[in-house]
Amino acid sequence: MLKLAGVTKRFGARVVLNAVSLEVAPGEYVAIVGDSGIGKSTLLHVIAGLEPVDSGSVEFDGAEITRMDDDSATLLRRDRFGFVFQAFHVLPHLTVLQNVGLPLLLRGVKRDELGRRAGALVAAVGLAGREQSLPRELSGGELQRVAIARALVGDPQLVLADEPTGNLDPENARQVLDLLRTQAKARGAAGILVTHSAAAAAGCDRRYLLNGAGLAAL
């Protein structure tokens, strides 16, 4: 489904990604670990078509993202990718249900279907009964559950998770990671988790270390 071949990315004279190669199959859940600042977030940005590469290629389902124009890459992200971030990025003025349904709203999904699909994901992540709550009424673990539901509501083929438990205590982190993995796999989505935590990566199908030399299997 996803194939990176020799991806190199520089910022000025600094090599951030050094000839990174990786393949991820449908339904696989892969962890990429590494120290803070090593380039893990940059790697996700490259996969998503948000950053150009200096050399190498990124292909998703046979289409080369590194050759797409901005409009094509935007549509790919909207329709086929899901994102989970450390800082949640939940909109404070929207309810739980509205936050989860936002990707469907952007696709023009009709109100009834949007409500049904968003409501099902809210329940699936353990927040049934909180549909009309505002973000300020939720804990950090609950906010990340909202973010997971939002990432999955559009039935993405690839979920990209960027340090999704960095703001959570260990127990909430464990629950959120279990939830993300099980819900993504239940929907047949591939997943890439980037983290500095070996514990967070432990439940993934495969684990890799990102460093200055590239990407190495663990």
Q: Given the helix and strand composition, which structural class is it?
A: alpha/beta
CATH superfamily: P-loop containing nucleotide triphosphate hydrolases
Number of domains: 1
- What do the pLDDT scores average to? 93
Give me the strand/helix succession.
EEEHEEHEHHHEHEHEE
Major sheet: arrangement of strands: 6-7-8-3-9-10
Number of helices: 7
> What is the CATH architecture assignment?
3-Layer(aba) Sandwich
Largest sheet data:
6 strands, mixed
Description:
There is one protein chain. This protein is an alpha/beta fold and 218 residues long. It has one domain: P-loop containing nucleotide triphosphate hydrolases (Rossmann fold, 3-Layer(aba) Sandwich), CATH 3.40.50.300. Helices cover 36% and strands 28% of the residues. It is built from seven helices and ten strands. β4 and β5 form a beta hairpin. The radius of gyration is 17 Å and the shape is globular.
Notable traits:
single chain; 218 residues; alpha/beta; Rossmann fold; four-stranded antiparallel beta sheet; 10 strands; globular
Can you describe this structure in just a few lines?
This protein is an alpha/beta fold and 218 residues long. 36% of the residues lie in helices and 28% in strands.
